[in-house]
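Support request from a user on the community tier.

User writes: "When I paste my structure tokens into the form, the page sometimes reloads and wipes my input. The last time it worked, I copied everything first. Here is what I submitted, just in case something in the input itself triggers the reload:"
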């Protein structure tokens, strides 16, 4: 059954314009067809199209579905946007399908990309949520500097990790993760975090981690981190 995103479905029976267009123009759904509507906040509903309009598709007969249980952990990944935007978009899509609560793009000393428009990434998150039937839409924060992120996250509870390639004492991420916890992982740019950035993170309560002996691309390292957290919480 086709899935659609409507964050205000309980108070507004009209699908957002983009979703309406997709339903009527792309999928050619008609009045009487059944669909699933997701609010991105944990609830999904079986609904019936009442008015098949490409700009304001109206639905009715909402029936709440038995939703998948919410994950027993919370994951936040801070990632330096890649020079090739396609690679960042690939990470966002796959991480959302695996399960991630929050993504923060951060600009670091060695970042090659210093500007990031988030409109397209927001759409990718919605699409991935619908495709994987995740009950909650991943939150995408506004891009910020490394320093601003550290200040914002320092007082928050949970485990905090910074993955880097410097010759220093580190622990394996998979061994450091504790299940059923809130976890934040920082992944640096192609040129890695600077020595100063690593020091600031450690001072702010982060633990330095390694992802193994492999030399990973930024988006691969970030997705590997998501997988590690997911697996530890499923054991």
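"...and here is what came back when it finally went through:"
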């Amino acid at each position: 059954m086709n899935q659609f995103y409507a964050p205000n479905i309980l108070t507004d029976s009209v699908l957002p314009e983009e979703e309406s267009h997709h339903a009527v123009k792309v999928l050619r759904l008609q009045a009487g067809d059944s669909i699933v509507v997701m609010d991105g906040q944990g609830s999904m509903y079986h609904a019936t199209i009442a008015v098949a309009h490409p700009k304001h598709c109206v639905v009715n007969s909402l029936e709440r579905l038995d939703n998948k249980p919410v994950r027993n952990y919370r994951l936040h990944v801070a990632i330096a946007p890649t020079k090739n935007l396609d690679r960042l978009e690939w990470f966002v899509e796959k991480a959302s399908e695996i399960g991630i609560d929050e993504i923060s793009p951060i600009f670091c000393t060695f970042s090659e990309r210093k500007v990031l428009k988030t409109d397209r990434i927001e759409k990718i998150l919605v699409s991935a949520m619908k495709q994987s039937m995740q009950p909650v839409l991943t939150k995408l924060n506004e891009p910020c500097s490394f320093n601003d992120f550290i200040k914002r996250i320092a007082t928050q509870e949970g485990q905090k990790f910074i993955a880097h390639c410097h010759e220093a004492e580190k622990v394996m991420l998979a061994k450091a993760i504790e299940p059923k916890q809130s976890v934040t992982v920082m992944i640096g740019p192609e040129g890695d975090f600077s020595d100063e950035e690593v020091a600031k993170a450690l001072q702010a309560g982060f633990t330095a981690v390694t992802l193994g002996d492999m030399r990973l691309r930024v988006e691969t390292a970030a997705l590997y981190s998501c997988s590690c957290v997911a697996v530890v919480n499923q054991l």
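Agent notes: The reload is a front-end session timeout and is unrelated to the input. The chain is about 30% helix and 25% strand. The mean pLDDT is 94. Escalated to web team.
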